[in-house]
Specification:
144 residues, mainly alpha, Methane Monooxygenase Hydroxylase, Chain G, domain 1, 4 helices, 82% helix
Length: 144
C-alpha cells in the first residue's frame, strides 16, 4: 500500500471515528444542559472533565486531518476534502462524502447546543449577580 493510500485510509477511518465522537459530544452537551438547569455543580465538574478529554481527542483528529490533507497536496479545508474525496473510487467516495457531511452536520448541532448552554450560563450569572450585588442594579446609583 502506498503512503498516499495509507494516509487516505487513516483519514477515512478517523472521519468515521469522529462521527461517533461528535455523536457522543452531542449527548454530552445535552447532559451538560440538564446539569446546568439543575445547577448540579458537583456533577458538572466531572462532566466537564469528560468533555475536555473528548474535545482533546477531536482536536487531535482535526490536527491529523489537516496534516494529511496538506501532505496529500490539497488545502486543509472543506474544499480540499471535497477535492480529495472526488478523486477516490466511487464506493469509497460515496462513503467519504457521507461521513464528511455527517461530521459537518454534527458540528453544527454541537455549536448550537454549546451556544444554548452558554446563554444559560450567562443568564444564571446575571441572576446570581443581581442576588449578590443588588447595588449594581441601578444605572445611576441608589436614590438620594
Amino acid at each position: 500500500m502506498s503512503d498516499n493510500s495509507s494516509m487516505v485510509k487513516t483519514l477515512l477511518n478517523e472521519l468515521n471515528q469522529d462521527v461517533a465522537h461528535y455523536q457522543e459530544l452531542v449527548a454530552q452537551l445535552k447532559q451538560q444542559h440538564v446539569l446546568l438547569v439543575n445547577r448540579d455543580n458537583q456533577a458538572l465538574i466531572g462532566h466537564n472533565q469528560q468533555l475536555q478529554s473528548l474535545m482533546a481527542l477531536l482536536n487531535q483528529h482535526a490536527t491529523n486531518r489537516h496534516t494529511i490533507l496538506t501532505r496529500l497536496g490539497v488545502t486543509a479545508n472543506n474544499e480540499g476534502m471535497q477535492k480529495l474525496l472526488s478523486k477516490l473510487p466511487q464506493q469509497v467516495q460515496q462513503k467519504g462524502m457521507m461521513l464528511w457531511q455527517k461530521l459537518y452536520d454534527l458540528t453544527l448541532t454541537c455549536q448550537e447546543l454549546n451556544n444554548t448552554n452558554g446563554r444559560l450560563l450567562a443568564q444564571q450569572k446575571q441572576l446570581i449577580d443581581r442576588l449578590l450585588k443588588p447595588e449594581q442594579q441601578y444605572c445611576y446609583g441608589p436614590g438620594e
